Amino acid sequence: MADGVHASTGCQLWPSSIVLAKELLRRPHLVAGKKVLEVGAGCGLLGITAGRLARSILITDGDEEVVRNLEFNIETNKHVWLSKCPDMPREVSARQLRWEDVLESPWTEDQRAEVIIASDIIYGNWGDVVAKAFLNLLAPGGLVLMAASEDRRSGVRVFQEHLEMKSFRVLETKLSEPLGDFRIYECRGPSLEQVEGISESPLPQPSLLAAEDPENNNSNNNNKCNGNNHNNNSSDNNTNNTNNNKSPEGPAEQPVSKQLWRVVGGHAKGGIIVREGPLGALSACLKERLASGSLVQELESTSERLCYRKLAGEGPETGWVSFAAKGVALVTKEVGETGDELRSKQ
């Protein structure tokens, strides 16, 4: 701790920051090469970890004394990112950032972050305040990664609902760690094109913890891969639904597939190959790869290949991938669980 800094909540190491830091190291593509902002940083463990991977990381807190300690911790731990890639300059800095200032003065386009990271920052009934602040800090199409301890989630539901109303896709994952039980929220914002054409109705929200609605299976088989739908997104699918499938509340939500898969291959090549159809080399290859660490839903499969819809990660929204290549697994079942099994634990 820096000289002259007194112990406070902002100068303690909270378990949720450790959990999210481990998640970043396990899934580095989430922040690799990106402009990242940490809010409510406290000691700065999470931001310092991101400094190993991100193009730039601004580590912030609302308390001036905590920021002084952050600057001390950054200087003390700068070997973490300098030794990682000595030839690539990385920007790691700290500053004071208060919610009220952000609400009054939204950041300009060139200031906004591609990824915002945070842990245990929402207490009481001010989840909507945090959500509004994030909207003033995040670039279009950006990602919010937030961890919360199971016993410190008061206000998080309001935060989540506020972002969903702004057409964010929110993925909520429950983790059980030696340090306790936690939730990680991956909140993907709409692109600039989606923002400009946004409607009052929010986009469908895929969630590991949301209940399935079997009645949504009548949406013209939009969840089936047929080799021609790799460019479809959720808004396109909703447009193609028949009028009978629309509800007064908005577009019918896509059903959540039961089996979840994690991409474990492609580390050295920027991800695994995605194709338009299930015929292997006979099916056209998409330009973009599906990044290692991505989480996908199974839509259908053959003995050798999987048709997926992406829930989290980088790469095509949907397509076909191989289960294995040369005897090495490319995707694995996520902790051997299905969406139903995850929900049964709630």
Automatic annotation (TrEMBL):
Gene3D superfamilies according to UniProt: Vaccinia Virus protein VP39 (3.40.50.150)
Pfam family, one: Methyltransf_16
Low complexity bias locations: 216-247
InterPro entries found in the cross-reference section: Methyltransf_16, SAM-dependent_MTases_sf
CDD domains per the UniProt record, alphabetical: AdoMet_MTases
Region (Disordered): 195-256
Protein name per its UniProtKB record: Calmodulin-lysine N-methyltransferase
